[in-house]
Amino acid sequence: MAQSGSSAMAHEILESADVVSRIVRDRHAIAEVARCLDIGAAPVAVLCGRGSSGHAGVFLRYLIETRLHLPVSASAPSVITAFRKPLTLRNALFIVISQSGRSPDLIAATQSARASGARTVAIVNALPSPVADAAEFVVPIEAGPEHSVAATKTVVGSMAAGAELIAALADDTALRSALDRLPERLYRGLTLDWTEVSDDLAGASAVFVASRGLGLGSAREIALKLAEILRLPALGFSAAELQHGPRAALSSKTPVIMMRLMDETAATVDAVATELRERKIALHLCGGPRSTLPWLGDDDPATDAITMLVPAYRMIERTAQEWGFDPDRPLQLSKVTETF
Question: Where is each SIS domain found (predicted)?
């Protein structure tokens, strides 16, 4: 079994704050991309990415819809690669997110979007890369090599770089200020110990991870990491959905990790948390006055959604080592998924 702290995943989590520091420091380059985009005529924004990159896209969806007031659609690359049906995306804002920049389906979807007249932006870690080459504009993450199969610092970087782009497009000074504070928040977030969650995971039949709005992408991302690294059935839901059909699957063997952001979604999350406690469901809540998990105190909801990933990642990596799993090499997975 690997020794605690020796995994690539552990080291890469620790680098997350430095990645965001570089992004914030170089925001002038992202602002120049925003200036060139000129999205005043954009009828829609389309986000393209799979896995962890797709979760960063969910986060950006809420930023785009709340800050730019553009409706957002998630791209289905198979429409291009399998069905071979190009979309009409003239003047649309098309954002593709990819850590490796080499997934064939993302390349094809970006090429098709650009050919149809979309303004295409690639948020990528690997430069040069085919995805970056396919897009008109590039926003680099510059996180450096990521050796663990499970993406961590690149996910944090994708979200931060995307938030910088939206802040520039919207001229959102509050979001820019929150991004200025984010590196220090991430450094502090590395000290938060969420070990209490792992105590409920060993006997779990499944794990539910929930949030709302800007936190939904992070909820889905944490659920993915629980599945791929700890081999647990894990589902990421909107907290609102736990008031509907999925609530029937909750039991004493399905712990819930819930993230509460201090925004318009807080009241619903509080109501769901109260109901789960009444039903004796094992609830691990981050954020707000009734937080059970160690937390820094609320800041901006957009950047808090990013910060909450760090203690979750650390808990999952440590639990993997305690269980004898290699957090860097999940079974049957590779770093680049060659979907087409």
Answer: 33-184, 197-330
